[in-house]
């Protein structure tokens, strides 16, 4: 049965709630109401113009209940994933109203004694989507998958790697191909209903987690596997997860997702890299294990006007010689058509 | 109080027990007996000529007890870190004899119901050294450390990165400098009595773990910090841990540890890399966050005779233009003297 989500995004919905936005835009479950005092009284599409949803925004869980939600989704992921203390009362109110709680936070809500007991009392449940299953060490079994595999990488966190992956899957389907989206983070898991938060896996096992996701996706015999990326290869905190996806998913090609306005990596003084360095770093690393080329650039031009966006797309094409586009602004079909022939299964390095 | 170790290394002591060898060679706790039916009846130095220890090797825990051990150390780490089933009876025998159990395995022995109950009954304890503490996300606080920091990297796992780190610390001390060894894996932790198994940390937090270790080491105001490396940058399973140490410990210089006989990475078909590619990959990655150069090559020539070892050392010098030596075979003083002036604290990249 499909869920009816109330999304909790206190104070962040309009500007910094990528989980909420992703579930509203791409989820198979419906979002019926958003909770954020900062935007209360508006509709979703008024607070976030690129979201095509008329769901109302209200100030708290009590007001949200009139829209008949069946689940409360924790719709933002603060740095480190901790639970802001002021959200506790709202979550308890939702549990008391028998809503399921779906959380992508690092802190396991289901392991919190107060939440656990409240859920037992109310007869509802808590789904911590970040909590990973046990996975084996990377084995190389992924090299035997015969489905061409595309991995998204980017110039920072939160630049749209998941969105581009989902849009490219839509384009593939419109072109008559079966594409399997591989979720590697909490929002992707909430959208697709399966997956592993690879950033939450013990470091030694992270490439094995990526491998197991691709093996699972290959079971349905799609024409193309599209792996959601995480972090950035020069991110001081999250690059190990990026590298785990690069080696573990064993892609045949990469699409580089870039916010061209990003000067430094979110929360750090580390500079964002130019196209040539980004492409070279990814390709040189993969060349040591299983070669894969960057075959296209997906720009996130959300913060630019039309002419500035076009100028950035032109610059990307000129500087890289690769197909480049903004798949949200202009649709994914052109970029998909331009890259698909360059995603061909090939073999790993071996002695 | 110092421990008296019985080291359990069933079937592996002579050829594949780097934890056991490291603790015997460098540990502050004494090893009084080794348990391995495959080498029983020999002394340690007879089974492993490069270890200067007369401790006896016996077939089982029952025989080991006569040497008065106070702790059983699990002295080998199979791939993935799981506990071989046949060791269970031996570990229970040690617990029943009131020995402390010190384990570097992935599986937490202290979480095993049978072991836990046995330890409670016997009034002894189980120390799972791999179990990491909670650590924060990488913050950049490590950039404010003023102590020059050296990180070991290598062309594979198990090539001697920890040994080289320990030998360089010894050389520094002989040269009148205070060097702090930073343990990042189970053997290093057992040797030094503190540290974090960075491979056991949740991937998102692995750079933060490395950062916290360097911050801790800096507290004692040493002249030099030497960080034990892990994995290899082109290792399909363990490279994310390597990268976490590179970004998280924010080194000022690297020493590259190479087994020149290694043609492919242990357990995988992935080719070992030549010097130029290894050096370039590490330096290009670090150049994006905080630049650091490879300042020396430490060769592991254990499997070569004297002339072949010398030839490999000469080749390393010729191909890289860097100081190169085998610090186990020829001592660490020359390599230390050749590199120390190139380990100077410097600033990260920033916008």
Summarize the structure.
Chain A is α/β, with parallel strands linked by helices and 351 residues long. Helix content of chain A is 33%, strand content 15%. In chain A, strands 3-2-1-4-5-6 form a six-stranded parallel sheet, with helices on both faces. A six-stranded parallel sheet of chain A has the order 8-9-7-10-11-12, sandwiched between helices.
Topology:
The structure is a homodimer of 351-residue chains.
Chain A: E1 4-8, H1 18-26, E2 30-35, H2 44-47, E3 57-58, H3 61-64, E4 71-74, H4 88-96, E5 100-103, H5 113-122, E6 126-128, E7 149-154, H6 161-174, E8 179-182, H7 186-192, H8 206-218, E9 224-227, H9 239-248, E10 253-258, H10 275-287, E11 293-299, H11 306-320, E12 324-325, H12 333-339
Parallel strand pairs in A: 1-2, 1-4, 2-3, 4-5, 5-6, 7-9, 7-10, 8-9, 10-11, 11-12
Helix pairs in contact in A: 1-7, 4-5, 6-12, 8-9
Can you describe this structure?
The structure is a homodimer of 351-residue chains. The first copy, chain A, has helices spanning 18-26, 44-47, 61-64, 88-96, 113-122, 161-174, 186-192, 206-218, 239-248, 275-287, 306-320, 333-339, and strands spanning 4-8, 30-35, 57-58, 71-74, 100-103, 126-128, 149-154, 179-182, 224-227, 253-258, 293-299, 324-325. Chain A has 351 residues and is an alpha/beta fold. In chain A, strand 1 (4-8), helix 1 and strand 2 (30-35) form a beta-alpha-beta unit. At the A-B interface, helix 8, helix 9 and helix 10 of A face helix 8, helix 9 and helix 10 of B.
